[in-house]
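Section 4.2 – Deliverable D4.2 (structural model, holo form)

The reporting period included a commitment to supply a predicted holo structure for the target in complex with (2R,3R)-2,3,4-trihydroxybutanoic acid. Inputs used:
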Amino acid sequence: MKHTLTALTGALILAAGAATAQQNIVVGHSLSPTSHYGIGAQAFIDTLNELSDGAFTGDQAPAGQLGGERDMIEGLQIGSMDVVITSTGPLGNFVPEVYALDLPFLFRDYDHARTTLDGEIGQELLAKIDENQLVGLAWTENGFRHVTNSQRPVRTPEDLDGLKLRTMENRVHMEAFSEMGASPTPMAFPELFTALQQGVVDGQENPVTVITASKFWEVQGHVSLTGHVYSPAVVLASPILLDGLTEEQRGWFYEAAKASAAATRAEVNRLEDAGVALLRENGMEVITDIDKAPFAELAEPAYAVYTDQYGSDMVDRIKAVE
Ligand code: EAX
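Output (structure tokens):
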């Protein structure tokens, strides 16, 4: 009896401790602290700190310090990471339903993508993420992706012919670029700058946000505004961390993720307006008048990576979002 009471008291003290002790949360991402992810990570930390009255503090682990996006996602599953802001690049390896968002030439524009992710479809896919030892807190954003390279201006799919192009570790993207004529080389983001510098690959594709944040103009002369795919990002948390929190505390994490997404999207908007001038100022040749139709036609078979497994219902639903 005495033993049981002692154990119970101990458990109560532990529980009270968990609810009141200060806890530091690390937010990992692949870009610089001043990038759209950095701004989003800071908004997450500041909002969580404010809502919790200082009980939660936070630090960024920027620039892939704790690994590439795939490594960081694995870290969430085993509890070695707390919170990660990541593109969906490698996420389909963990949650294949998410490939529906990575299909080329699917989203018409930013409004279409954001409305889809903030609505029913976004919620459904966050729930799928939650079934895979991860917690999807909120959709955030990377941006429409464009091709850069060191060899030549790309205007047509023929210009991609034979270009060694780094892609994310994403089956849909790799398939799309094979179909469009490039030679896709999947690689984690932290290795990319050096690979471009050393000529291991000729080019890569990323949104204006990432090209500017990573100063790719130092190693790439040409950028073509192909906008070939929208790159969603997501604020993920470790279920091991969240399971140890009270419901109120968990609510703060969701609120902080929403604030993070809003801050990141605002920065994406700013760079969509200012970014092309920035690329030119830094010496890149920017090709803006791309006829997307031939690229889209060639990339179409990449849809099968998703539809062979799940059918085309989700694709049709996304297309129908106004
Ligand atoms: O999420 O790997 C990539 O190209 C991503 O766009 C980048 O890490 C930002």
